[in-house]
Every structure is written in C-alpha cells, then in structure tokens.
## 1
Amino acid sequence: MAELIPFVMFLVACLILMAGYPVAFSLAGTALLFALVGAVSGHFDMAFLQALPNRLFGTIENTTLVAVPLFILMGVMLEKSRLSEDLLESMADALGGFRSGLGISVVLVGALLAASTGIVGATVVTMGLMSLPTMLRRGYSPAQATGVIAATGTLGQIIPPSIALVLLGDTLSSAYQQAQLNMGIFTPKTVSIGDLFVGAIIPGMVLVLLYCLYIIFFTRPAETDSASLAPMANSLSRAMRNLIPPIILIVTVLGSILSGAATPTEAAGVGAFGATVLAAIKGQLSITRLREVAQSTTQVTAMVFLILIGAAIFSLVFRGFGGEEIVEEFFNDLPGGIVAATLLVMLVIFLLGFILDFIEITFVVVPIVAPVLLAMGLDPVWLGVMIAINLQTSFLTPPFGFALFYLRGVAPDTVETSDMYRGVFPFIIMQIALMLMLSVWPQIATWLPALVYK
C-alpha cells in the first residue's frame, strides 16, 4: 500500500484542482497534508522538508526565470498598445481581395501574437474579439471561423519566444542534469532554453504552413468583391508598415539568443524594451497604459512563481514517498521499453491538459517523468517540443479544451458550441500528424539546434 501513496497524492491534487481551488495552494496543501499523515504513520521522513528553503532560494536565484516577467511584459505591452489589432486590420484589408485571405491573416497575426504572449487564453480571447465578428460577416461559417481562431491561439505553446517554452526549457534543463547524475555522469551536458527555442522553430513554422494550406484549399468563405489594385496596394503598404516592427522585435529577440549575443533573460529584456518603444511610437504609452501593463505583468508573474513554489513542495513530498523510484521502476518494466513509456507519458500529459494549465503540468508532471525518459535515451529538445505540441493539442480537444472555453466566453450566442467542436477537428488532426512526423523524423526538432550550436 505504501507504494500507492504517491499516486494517491497526485490523484487527490487533481481532484482538488477540478473542484476549483487555486492551483498553488492545492498543490502545496495536498503535499503538506500527505506529509503530515505519512509522518504519523511512519511512511514519510519529515527531514525531507528541510530541503525546501534551499529549493525555494535556488528558484529565486535562478536568473533564467527572470525572463518570465520580461517576456510577459513584452506580450502585454503589444496587446494593450493595440499593435496586434492594427496589424490584423491592415493585413485583412491587404489580403481581403483574395479568397481565404482573411483566414490566412488571422493565422499569421495570431502566430505573431502567440509568439509574443505565449499564453493561450490571452491569444484566443484577443483574436476572438478582434477577428471572429469580421470572419462571420465576410462569409466564413461559424465552424471555420472558430476553428481557425482557437487553433491559432494555441500556437503560443510551440512558437518561440513563448512563456511556455521558457518554463519548459528551464524544467527540462534541471531534469536532464538530474538524469545524467542518476546515470553516474558527474560532468553532465546541459540543455538550455535557447536550445528549445531553436528546436521549436521548424515544427512551429510547419504547423503554421499546414494551417494556411488547410484554409486555402478547404475553407469556403462567401465570395467577396475583389479589391482594386490601387486600394490593395495602399492596404499592402499599410500592412507592411504595421508588420515590420513586431517582426523586427521578435527576430531581434530570437536572433540575439541564436547568435549567442544574449542569454534568454537578456533577450527578454530587449523584447520588453522594444515593445515599450513600439508602443511609444504608436502614441499608446500613457501613464494609464503603463499602469495597466505593470498590473497585468505583476499578476501573471506572481501567479507563475506562486505555482512554482507549490509545485516545488509537491515534488519534494512526492520524492519523499519514493514516487520517483516507483515511476522509474514502472517505466523500466513496461513491455515495449522507451516507446511504450513515451506513449504513456504523452497520453497522461494529454489527459491532464484537460484539467491543468501548461504551468502546472510543466512544474509538477515534467519533473517527475522527464528524468526517467531522458535517462532512457530521449533527446531533451525533442521531448520538450513533443510535450509542447501535445499540450497544444490537449488545449484544443473537445469537450475540455481550454482554448474552447476561452473562445466560448467571447463568441456571440449565434455560434453554437458544436460549431466550435467541428471547427477544431481538422486542426487537431494536423497537430497529431506533426507529432507523428516528429516521431518518425526527430531531426525536425533536433537538426537546427545541432547546426546552430555546433
């Protein structure tokens, strides 16, 4: 029975989260309650909790995590300053004379917005408010419009420089070092957030390309009047003026990381400063705007780090009950070896994506399973990209997908929930196809990091 305690603790935490209690307090409270019961019953050594201050202090000292509030500030600034809204309007006008031009505009602008914010809810809500009424008015069916918007909103999981990849990269870095130490390698190799950024570039671009091809060949909006060449030229010029600044910003952030000129944290500072400059150029940098951006950034950052503290307590107690050894033994005994273990982990993460956000999964689940999988021989960059796409698919899958809940909150009553379910189905198939491609050709994720950091 003692071997079941870690899994019972994990199950109880999930049930408490489903009941609607705050994530950080649910994780920490469940862990401390089980630790107390375990200490009384003789199954847990309270000395494990003496390591908690050092863990929390190590988290505070982690300079990599300083990138989190800076990237959040960058995304919030771009959102609050209406840069993304202006970009969508100008691109829609420029491509409005082409069939499916609006849908392609939504995907491209959504990809830029997702790369800037990295938060599914923010991207889905923003794109839903900006583009859903226009898409419906221009002849897209409710299923087509909601499917494109919801799928585009989840791109923030895979397109760098997103918050999801920052947190996942930091967690995988620790897991990779732990896996090597467990294997007796005392000069471990390292994997950085920059490695994961580079590894996610090609899969992210492939997914955007698949979305655009689907929209071009399979969506059938109502016929629109073709724009004349002169207005189209003017619209295209305005679109380029609105498009170039955010692209320069994102390329500067990623380029500084890829070239080795800056760490992810330093690049995040460049991104935050650049977004502020763009807002000032657009005339959107008022005191009120700065206060809104600062409040939103502080709220999201505080949420992330509070969850990180709760997850640290949970993982410490989980290890104190011998959960890590139990998971490792279970994976090693699975018929099918590393393939079966990877499939099982991906299935569990996919199902947990229905009830947990990417932050909880990154901080709670990944530290438990990643060291075992990495010790079995998986590439850390490949594993990180697969987890990101898997979570993206989970957030899009009915009936529990987070992206659908967010979009339902801003969609008009004329759009049925069943329309959303039908609309996202083709995009789910595309994401699963990408994961299958990565399984067959892992070089899609590993080739570019090996080339850049050769």
## 2
Amino acid sequence: MLVFASLFAGVASAGPYGWGVDGGVTLEQRFPPPEGFTRVSAEQGSFGAWLRGLPLAPEGTPVLLHSGAEKARQDVHAAVIDLDVGTKDLQQCADAVMRLRAEWLYGTGKAKAVSFNDTGKGAPMPFSRWAKGERPKAKGNALVWSATAKPDESRASFRAYLDTVFMWAGTSSLEKQLVKRPLDAIAPGDVFIKGGFPGHAVIVLDVAKRGDEARLLLGQSYMPAQNLHVLKQADGDPWFSAPTADAKYETPEWTFPPGSLRTW
C-alpha cells in the first residue's frame, strides 16, 4: 500500500497551505484546461485562486480511507489532494468542503471568519469561540458553549476544532448555510450539494470556458472518510461538462438534482 510522508501530517507551519505539505505539483500545473478552453479569472488571494494552488500527491497515489486502507473504488479519481484526512471517520464529503474553505481562511489571515452551522439548530460554530477556550456540548438537539479550555489559536487547536465541526455539521447544515448560485455564474469554490442522511457534496475546484461552454474540475471526499480527490470521468478526462438547467448532474458516485449548485 502506497503512503507518502505528508498525507497524514499533523501540526504544520503557518501559510496558505500550512497543514504540512512540502511543495509538489499543484492542481493548476497538473491539469491544463481542455484544448480551446481558458481558465476563468480568479482574483489573487481569492478562494478560487487558492484552490488552483492546492498541492497534489504524486501521480498514481491511491485514495486512502481514514484507517489507512485503500478505498474499494480506485477508478474515479485523477489525483489525490495532499491533505490529511485524520484517523477517525469524520472528514467525509461536506466535511472536506468545509475543510478547504476553513484552511483558506485560516491560512490567509481570516481565521475570525471561520464558522459553520450545526445540524441540530443551525447555530453557528465559530472558530473564534473555540480559540477563546470555549467548547460546545450537546444539550438536547442544541449545542451549548462553555469555557473549559485555555485560549489557543494554534494550528493544532484549529485542527481539533475542525474535527468537532465534522461531528456536528454535514450536508444538511451546509446546504442551508450556502446560497443558491445560477449555473451561468459558476466559479471555482462553488459546491454541488444535496443535503440529507445520506447526502453528498462535490466542490468545483476550477472552471475553464470557451464562450458560454464551461468545463469543471470537481473534488470530493466520500463515505467512509477518505482523501479528498479530483474526480475523473469513465474515459479518464478530469474536466466535466457543466450541467444544463433543469437537468440532473451525474458525477461518478452521486447524481445531483437540478438546482444543486451553491456558493459561499
């Protein structure tokens, strides 16, 4: 079984990709746009630009579960994002989407904006409260916060916060937190999501266009928790056609109903 050093890295240095990676090929470098297409513009420092710089594991790396075992299906990914998945069954589909958003905010000095809603009451779970030493505890179907730890804004504390978010949030809460996006405005960082138990979420990692025609790079985690990976089609092409209005959207392991596109 192939495992490389940084895949399950722990505490890391600060920076936009500060979870413990050491260079390597980026998403943008490995996946040039299809012939005749051009990547859409992404403002420097934006979430979309950050996604293009995501570091990738070496070519041929399998998707691993949180246990370290290989995922049963190894035929749906074109690449593995060099991002730890943790050792528990927590970082599943919507969790991986939230992880990327949170890592961008944390790594670019916007940690105070990191906040996700819980599934029970839809109440916010901000990192700012966690960093002050507050911790959430279930009371009925609500979460009650109390100061039970020392203030800590470190990466180790941030990573522990994310695992707690993954326990209390999911596709149902994230779908409600995000806002609808029209297909003709699709952009890197948008999310196809179907809330439910189970539900699923796939993030748009990049967009390339030729006139009004769009092609998408898509990323997902899945159940059980597994490495975030770039999806590919049956013919091996990682660039998916964008969906058309009022049509279902087929991805390798999930079909999304019309109107599933959301943004932050």
## 3
Amino acid sequence: MWPFIISFLISTLAAPLVIQWYRRRHWVDDPATHRHVKVTHQQPVPRGGGLVVAAGIVLTSLLLLPIDSYLLAIMASTVLLTVTGILDDIYDIHPGWRLAAGLLAALIVVGAGIGIAYVSNPFGPGVIHLDQPVWQLQILGETRSVWVLADLFAIVFIVWNMNIVNWSKGVDGQLPGFVGIALVFVGILSYRFIDDPTSFNTAHLAFIVAGAFFGLLVWNFYPQKIMPGYGAGSLAGFYLSVLAILSGAKVATTLMVIAIPTADAIFTIARRIRAGKSPLWGDRGHLHHKLMDVLGWGKRRVAVFYWSASLVLGILSLYLNTMGKLLTIGLTFAIVFGFLSWAKWVSVYGKQKST
C-alpha cells in the first residue's frame, strides 16, 4: 500500500500549491468569459489537474520503482502530456495539437518496447498473436525489430483511450474517481498476470497512479477547487492503456472497466459525424450532460454513478473470462447507446412540442 499512500499524499499536498499558482497567474477557466454549452461549472476554477497527478506519479515512481528503459519512456511521455496540459490550461490549444502530443507520447512508449504482442482468444483456448509481420530496421548502427500489427494496435489503443477517457471529466469528481477505481483493479490483476520481459513493477505503478488520481479527487470533488484539465484527462487514458499492456495485454479488462466512457465516446463521435461536425470539438451531448439535463441529476450523483459503474465492472473483471468480458462490454454499450438515443429523442421532441 505504500506506493498508493505516498503518491496520494504527494498529489493531495501538491494540489493547493498548484491552485494558488494558477490563481495568482489568472490561469482559470471562467464560465463568464469561456462560454460553451459543454461547461457545467459556474465559478472560475483553475484547471491544472495534470500537474497535480504528474507530481504524485513522477516523484513516487522515481522514489520506489527500479529505473529501466520502460520507466524512462513512461516518465518522458508523462512529462510531455503534462506540459501539453499546462499549455492547454493557459492557451486552450487546438485539439489537433493535443492529438499530436498524444500520438507522440504513444510512440515514445511503443518505441521503448511496450507493445501488444497478443490478445486472448475469446472463442477458445490460447491467444491471438500480433507479432507478425516483423520489420528489421537499422537505427544508429543497431538492428531494431518492429512488430507491425502489435505496435500499430498499441498506438491506436493508447491514443484512443487517452482521448475518450479525457471526455469523461465534465462534472466535479467524475474523472479522478472512476479512473482511480479502474487503476486499482488493473493493479490487482497485474499481480495475477505478470507478463513483463523486464523487472518493471507493473502493479506498483498502477497503485501509484491510482493514488495520484485519488489525491486529485480530494480537491476536485464537489464543489471542485481544481479541474483535471487535458493534462489529467490524457494521463488517465495513457496509464490505463500502458498498464493494461504491461500487465499482460489485458485489453478486454481495460475496455470493460471504462466501458461507459468508451460507449459514450463512440456514440458521440458517430453523432457528430452524422451531424456534419468535427468529432474533436466538444458539445453538450455526452452521457454526463444528458444525465443532468434529461434526468435532472446533480453533479455529485453523476460522479458517484461513474464511480459505481467502474467499481462494479472492475469486480466483474476479476472473475469473468474474455468472452464474458466482451459480452459485458456489449451489454454496457447497448444500455448507454439506448439511453443516449432516448435522451436525444426526448430533447428533440420536447423542443418541437414546446414550440
């Protein structure tokens, strides 16, 4: 528990320092000047959550974990995403630049050898290998092997999760709570399925990251004193993906514990494209918005719903096989899609009826 406790304490103590720094520099998200339909807060709040989480992760990891090529690559990506998050906190940079930074972060860790060489076969025993074909490249006088399918799969998996998890931070306490819970289960599963070619301690890192997000939750829960921002949102998806890979390519497990944000993201992307809009630009059509606007839920209830769902799905992930996980993911998708479709119909029908 020490990795979790130390990381939690560092993040908890770092948060008020970041809040004070951001406020002194007037780096706040003010709904009076930053008018957007997706905004749910009503008072100026600093973002800066990425810096809080990164402080807990980086300091605790360098203190407790053995330093190897994997850790160095992960820390380099963490710094890159944190700096990108700070720039976005200050300047609201274009989503394309954020996407590029996320892609570079994924390339760094995949280039260090963190890839998905196989996935479990849901239709029978054994695994599906992704380590063929292989490209041999000469880089700086050394021969490097590139597992084409494995590396492409890993890059897409990491970048996708970074973006879709980042979208689920619309209300106070939502993101750090469900991400922290999900990472605890990834840590538990890491003890069962260690499949790491180095001495890298995957389980300890999972608990370190979980502690950092729970430290942010102390200050982000309603009424929030600091927001996660892009920094914390991207780090959440990044670590969920990387730790899933390091713990033995637990792709189905990760998709299961974040099934609700994933379903929300897929529906949102399809809805925006169908409406002729860019899938990168935000709106007020996410699941947390509909729970508030259609069902009348408050922010605390929405956050607790996300936590509870992550907890239940995490517990199930400890006992279900791959096929069971895929069926659970499919059922979750069907429920979320059904609710969002109904909420969309209610919104449109309600407007037509009122006019």
